[in-house]
Structures are given as structure tokens and as C-alpha cells.
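hey
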């Protein structure tokens, strides 16, 4: 079962439909005590600003719960702002603390045509793509909506360029994966990648 964390800053409806489309059972939890025992993956969504979202996670009890969950080597998937919250901190609207599952600071995009960065953009894989896009392993297009991002780091497995700036589109470690883009809004390829990520985390 995939449990979606509902802390007041997520695109829950689109995610539920996307997960159902790939045959996944879902549950929406507003507080840690709601979490079903059969949860295999925690999914942290998010749209909006980092600081208020981090505060909502802390007030709801999810902040410490997610950190403890990951320390037990249990899997977490973060999407858009959810991916950013998995990182150490952010400079959006001042300094805010993140969950620290991935090293790095979320910073405002610079040297770009305009903000926010909205629309379809390509993701280039560092190494082989996990899924062959029509026989090509090099890159695929996904839907982005954001003004802040994580610089390319040792956890980066997918990179996107916007203007003169490159940033982490996908970060990955043994029990955590983050997407800066919205796979649930990225058509069939987004669904394929979402399915791959969940299977990878459930291994």
C-alpha cells in the first residue's frame, strides 16, 4: 500500500488517480497515527512554499515521523515540493529546515528566462534510464512547476536544464526517491516512471 501524506500542501487527487491507474492501492493519512500497518511506501506530495510546508509537517507530527521512518530504512517518495522537503534545508523566503534525507540546499533558480518554471522540460539521465522511452534511454519530457530547486549532487540521477541553469530533476538513494517534476501530470511516461519508482522502493 502507498500512503499519501496529507498535510495541507499536496495535489492529492491527481496522485490518487495516477496511482490507481498503475494498479496501486492508496491510503491518505492526515496524521502519523492514521498510518496503516500494511504501508510499504510513504509518499510526500507538495505544492507551494517550503517554509510553511515544513512548519505544517512539524505541527502535524509528520516531520519527526518521516525522519524516523527513513532511519529504519523504510521507503519514501517525494514529489515536487515533497522532493525539496526531503533535502537538508531551503533558502526560499529565508532559511527553513528540511528533513535531511538528501544533502543540499534548495535555492532559487537563476539565469533563467522567467519564473516560475512551468511546463514540459526534458530530464536527462545520469547513466542509463530506468525505462526505455520508445527505445531511447537518453531523456524524456515531464511537467514542471517550480521556482526553486536542488543543485546537481551525488544523489542526482536525472538532470534538467532551464536557461543556463541545470538542477536535480530526480534524486535517489537506497530507500528514498525524489522527483522535482509532477509524474502524475506527465502522461504515460510519468505513470511509467512513477510505477518504476514504487517498484524500486519496494525491493
Amino acid at each position: 500500500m502507498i500512503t499519501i501524506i496529507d498535510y495541507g500542501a499536496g495535489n492529492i487527487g491527481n496522485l490518487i488517480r495516477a496511482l490507481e491507474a498503475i494498479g496501486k492501492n492508496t491510503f491518505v493519512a492526515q496524521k502519523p497515527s492514521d498510518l496503516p500497518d500494511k504501508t510499504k511506501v510513504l509518499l510526500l506530495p507538495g505544492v507551494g512554499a517550503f517554509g510553511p510546508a515544513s512548519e505544517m509537517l512539524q505541527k502535524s507530527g509528520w516531520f519527526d515521523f518521516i525522519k524516523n521512518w527513513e532511519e529504519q530504512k523504510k521507503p519514501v517518495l517525494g514529489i515536487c515540493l515533497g522532493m525539496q522537503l526531503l533535502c537538508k534545508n531551503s533558502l526560499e523566503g529565508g532559511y527553513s529546515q528540511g528533513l535531511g534525507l538528501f544533502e543540499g540546499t534548495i535555492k532559487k533558480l537563476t539565469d533563467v528566462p522567467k519564473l516560475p518554471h512551468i511546463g514540459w522540460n526534458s530530464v536527462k539521465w545520469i547513466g542509463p534510464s530506468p525505462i526505455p522511452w520508445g527505445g531511447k534511454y537518453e531523456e524524456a519530457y515531464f511537467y514542471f512547476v517550480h521556482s526553486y530547486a536542488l543543485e546537481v549532487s551525488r544523489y542526482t540521477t536525472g538532470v534538467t536544464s532551464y536557461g543556463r541553469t541545470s538542477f536535480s530533476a530526480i534524486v535517489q538513494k537506497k530507500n528514498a526517491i525524489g522527483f522535482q517534476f509532477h509524474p502524475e501530470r506527465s502522461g504515460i511516461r510519468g505513470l511509467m516512471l512513477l510505477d518504476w519508482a514504487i517498484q524500486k522502493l519496494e525491493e
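The longest strand covers residues 117-125. The two ends are 14 Å apart (CA to CA).
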